[in-house]
């Protein structure tokens, strides 16, 4: 009988630790997403300011390509992080 009581306590403790781990990872993912967005907007603003001051059409085209590339990288990274966050949300609902 004591064995089953001890086993149930261990299982409950394990579930709580798993839940806490999931919540911590979700928080980390949110922070990573904010960092990605902040980096993108900082980079985007920097490129836009150069674009406004530089009249060379080749340079403007290069900047436009960099903006599109940065936007694509941001989207891919955010989608990956969002998928992981959503899968953790599903896992969290089990507890």
Model description:
- The chain is built from two helices and no strands.
- The longest helix has 52 residues, at 2-53.
- The chain has one domain (2-93).
- Helix 1 (2-53) runs antiparallel to helix 2 (57-93).
- It is mainly α.
- The chain is rod-shaped and about 80 Å long.
Features:
95 residues; mainly alpha; 0% strand; rod-shaped
Quick gist of this model?
By secondary structure, the protein is mainly α.
The major pleated sheet works out as: none
Percent helix, as a range, is over 70%
**General form:** rod-shaped
SSE arrangement, N to C: HH
Count the DSSP helices.
Answer: 2
Number of strands: 0
Strand content: under 5%
Kindly provide the radius of gyration, computed on alpha-carbon positions and rounded to a whole number of angstroms: 23 Å
Poorly predicted residue ranges: none
Output the structural class: mainly alpha
Domain count: the total is 1
N-to-C span: 25 Å
Instruction: Give the mean pLDDT.
Output: 85
Topology:
Layout: H1 2-53, H2 57-93
């Amino acid at each position: 009988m004591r064995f089953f009581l001890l086993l149930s306590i261990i299982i409950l403790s394990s579930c709580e630790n798993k839940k806490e781990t999931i919540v911590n990872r979700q928080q980390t993912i949110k922070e990573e997403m904010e960092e990605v967005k902040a980096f993108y907007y900082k980079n985007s603003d920097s490129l836009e300011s150069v674009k406004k001051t530089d009249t060379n059409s080749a340079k403007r085209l290069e900047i436009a390509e960099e903006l599109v590339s940065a936007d694509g990288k941001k989207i891919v990274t955010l989608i990956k992080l969002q998928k992981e966050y959503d899968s953790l949300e599903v896992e969290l609902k089990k507890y």
